[in-house]
C-alpha cells in the first residue's frame, strides 16, 4: 500500500488539505488525533504521562489538560523531548495497525505535524509539505485557537523550519492564498494514483 505523509508547520493547512484528500475517498490517519486519543485512552501512556508531568496533566474526569502540558513542553526542550519519546512510538504502532486494516484504497495518507522531526517520513513512500508564510499562519492559528502570536511562534521554534522541510519534501502545496487548494490537491491525487499503479 502506497503511503503518503502530509506535513506542514503550525497553521500551514495540513489538516485542511488532508480533509480534501478524504473527500476524494483516500483514508487519512491523523497522527496528532491518534496521539491525543491514546494520551487519554491508553492506560500505560496515561500512567507514563502522569509520572513524567504530574497528576495535573489530567483533569479529575480524565481529560488531558492540554494547556497545562503545552505550557510545560513548549517552554522546555527537555520536557518536549520527554513527551515526544512517550507518544511517538505509540503513534507509530497505531499507524501500522491502521494501515494493516485498510483493504481497498489506492493509497493512504498519514497527516503528522512532526513527520520530518520524528523521522516518521521514513515509514512513508512520499512526503507532501503544505506551506504558508509565517505571518499568515499566525493569523490563522490565533483566529482558530485561544493562543497568542508569541505562543504560536514558540511552537514554530520547536519545529524544523519550513525552508528545511522544503528541501526534504517530495511534493509541496502552496497554501498562501495566491493559489487555490483544490486544483493542487486534484493534481497530486492524479500523481499518487499513477504512483500506486503497478
Ligand atoms: C502538548 C499538547 C497537549 C498541546 O495541545 P494543544 O491543543 O495546545 O495543541 P495541538 O495538539 O492542537 O497542536 C497544535 C500544533 O502545535 C504543534 N505541536 C504539537 N505537538 C508538538 C510537538 N510535540 N512538537 C512541536 N510542535 C508540536 C503542531 O504544529 C500542532 O499541529 C499537544 O500538542 C500534544 O499532546 N502533543 C504531543 C503529541 C504530539 O507529539 N503530536 C504531534 C504529532 S504526532
Ligand atoms: N487556504 C485557506 N484559506 C483560508 N483559511 C484557511 C486556509 N487554509 C487553512 N485555513 C484555516 O487556517 C487554520 C489552520 O488550518 P489547519 O488546521 O488545516 O492547519 P494545520 O497545519 O493542520 O494547523 P496546526 O499545525 O495548528 O494543527 C484553520 O482554521 C483553517 O480553516
TrEMBL record:
The keyword Nucleotide-binding applies. Pfam families: CoaE. It is found in: Cytoplasm. The keyword ATP-binding applies. ATP binds at residues 11-16. Its EC number is 2.7.1.24. One of its GO terms (molecular function) is kinase activity. Keywords: ATP-binding, Coenzyme A biosynthesis, Cytoplasm, Kinase, Nucleotide-binding, Transferase. It comes from the Bacteria. PROSITE patterns: DPCK. It catalyses: 3'-dephospho-CoA + ATP = ADP + CoA + H(+). Pathway: Cofactor biosynthesis; coenzyme A biosynthesis; CoA from (R)-pantothenate: step 5/5. Belongs to the CoaE family. Catalyzes the phosphorylation of the 3'-hydroxyl group of dephosphocoenzyme A to form coenzyme A. HAMAP family: Dephospho_CoA_kinase. This is Dephospho-CoA kinase. The gene is coaE.
Amino acid at each position: 500500500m502506497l503511503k503518503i505523509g502530509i506535513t506542514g508547520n503550525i497553521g500551514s493547512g495540513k489538516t485542511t488539505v488532508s480533509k480534501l484528500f478524504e473527500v476524494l475517498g483516500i483514508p487519512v490517519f491523523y497522527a496528532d488525533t491518534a496521539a491525543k486519543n491514546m494520551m487519554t485512552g491508553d492506560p500505560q501512556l496515561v500512567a507514563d504521562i502522569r509520572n513524567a508531568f504530574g497528576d495535573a496533566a489530567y483533569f479529575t474526569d480524565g481529560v488531558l489538560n492540554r494547556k497545562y502540558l503545552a505550557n510545560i513542553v513548549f517552554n522546555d526542550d527537555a520536557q518536549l523531548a520527554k513527551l515526544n519519546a512517550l507518544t511517538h512510538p505509540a503513534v507509530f504502532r497505531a499507524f501500522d495497525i491502521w494501515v494493516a486494516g485498510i483493504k481497498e484504497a489506492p493509497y493512504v495518507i498519514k497527516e503528522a505535524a512532526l513527520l520530518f522531526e520524528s523521522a516518521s517520513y521514513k515509514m512513508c513512500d512520499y512526503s507532501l509539505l503544505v506551506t504558508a508564510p509565517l505571518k499568515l499562519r499566525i493569523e490563522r492559528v490565533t483566529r482558530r485557537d485561544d493562543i497568542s502570536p508569541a505562543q504560536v511562534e514558540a511552537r514554530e521554534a520547536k519545529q524544523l523550519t519550513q525552508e528545511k522541510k522544503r528541501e526534504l519534501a517530495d511534493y509541496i502545496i502552496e497554501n498562501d492564498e495566491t493559489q487555490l487548494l483544490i486544483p493542487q490537491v486534484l493534481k497530486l491525487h492524479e500523481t499518487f494514483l499513477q504512483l500506486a499503479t503497478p
